[in-house]
Design goal:
Length: 226
Amino acid sequence: MKFTDRLWRSVEDIWNGYLEHPFVDGLGAGTLDEEKFQHWLKQDYVYLMEYSRLMAIGADKAPDLKTMQMFSELLHGTLHGEMALHRAYAAEFGISEAVLLETRPSAVNTAYTSYMLNHASRGDAAAVAACLLACAWSYNFIGNHLVKKYPNQENNPYKQWVDTYSGEDFTELNGTAMTLLNELAEGKPERELEALEEIVVTTSLYEYMFWDMCEKKEAWPVQAKL
Ligand SMILES: Cc1ncc(C[n+]2csc(CCO)c2C)c(N)n1
């Protein structure tokens, strides 16, 4: 059994919770409030910058060239692929990149990235891969679910979102993230596997909180300047 099969059993209930979340369902149905989506776009842009640092740490800690290449592929996919999608969406709403970059990350956003960066800097390459996994895999899981539930995406303003995360490029990136962790976890003692599992469960819980933060448009109570 692959390590990711074991992980699936521990996160399945949390991930099914995403599918019932009004923000996620609204993306598929096309009914999501535009301001909530813009909140996600801004928060996610700065999230992805911090998330990208993880893969740079992973490349540094990688035991061999092949692993370095996999971390680098994910890094490139995020900085140049996924963030380009965010820029394109923002432009449609008349939001410039400068405005995206001014976003002050919310408390949940900060807690999530700090948690991952903390584990990534303390742990080995497998810990870094564990930090990355829920993000890549759960968006692909959500995208695939939404195309199945809402096959007619013609009039959905979030069609591009659904297409992107269920599409070939992201399915491939997710495959890389899964293979990376499966390979790095191989031969590890049970105690270490449990620690990796704990990271994947915690990041899965943070993913839920991130959706909820966007649904509630949570930000700091006082909009101080950065
Ligand atoms: C909070 C949050 N979680 C996950 C993703 C999705 N995601 C992050 S990295 C990656 C793979 C390579 O870009 C994917 C699909 C997101 N955008 N925001």
